[in-house]
Amino acid sequence: MKKVLSVSLGSTTRDHSTEAEFMEEQFWLSRQGADGDFDRYVQMYRDNDGKVDAFGVGGAEFYLWVNLSALLFPRDQAHPRSDQDLKSGGWQRY
After folding, report:
1. Helix, strand or coil for residue 86?
2. Nearest of 6, 4, 15, 94 to residue 57 by alpha carbon
3. Strand-strand pairing, 54-58 and 91-92
């Protein structure tokens, strides 16, 4: 079974897990919030690294540090990204 974890800075009240089958393969899908606590958010990635097959990113930007400069990962306008809020349209281009 493949495991997919979406970690969000958002509320834990929206946490949810389910299992589904896609193309004859079983998946465990989970959304876990950090209630706005960025340190907890980062720790959730560390705790689950190597335990899940894929991560989702919600509510935060990621930076690459090069020569003491923070470079924001560019947002590719050609590919949709999820803001994890299906009530506001789900997949959105940023």
Report:
1. helix
2. 6
3. unpaired
Q: What is the pLDDT along the chain (94 residues), one digit of tens a residue?
A: 999 999 988 889 999 999 999 999 999 999 999 998 888 988 998 999 999 999 887 766 665 555 655 555 544 444 444 444 444 444 333 3
User: Domain-by-domain residue ranges, the chain?
Assistant: 2-92
Say if CB 84 and CB 10 are below 8 A apart.
yes
- Taking the C-alpha atoms of residue 85 and residue 63, their distance in angstroms, rounded to an integer, is 23
